[in-house]
Here is the input.
Amino acid sequence: MSTMTKVAFVAGLAIGYVLGTRAGRERYDQIRRVARAVRENPTVQETAGIVQAQAGNVMASAKEAVAERLAHTPVGERFSSVFGAQESAPGVNGKGPAS
Here is the structure.
């Protein structure tokens, strides 16, 4: 390969890199603008609040179910000896120190 061919090849790589990064940055900025618009949309915020509340309810139900299933097992008995005799795990239904 001649020196002139190498120079042309390197110049082509440099031009391609510059044009590619410029186009990539523009696309990145476009994606950021769209994401911000979606995130700030009142409907999206309201839906996110509803989903968060439902997730909290599911977690509380799951904690209760686990506490009930473990209540009469060695793990549950050990848990009760550490946290005191309670019907359910701490923090479930407002009982215990995690509430």
About this structure: The chain has three helices and no strands. The mean pLDDT is 81.
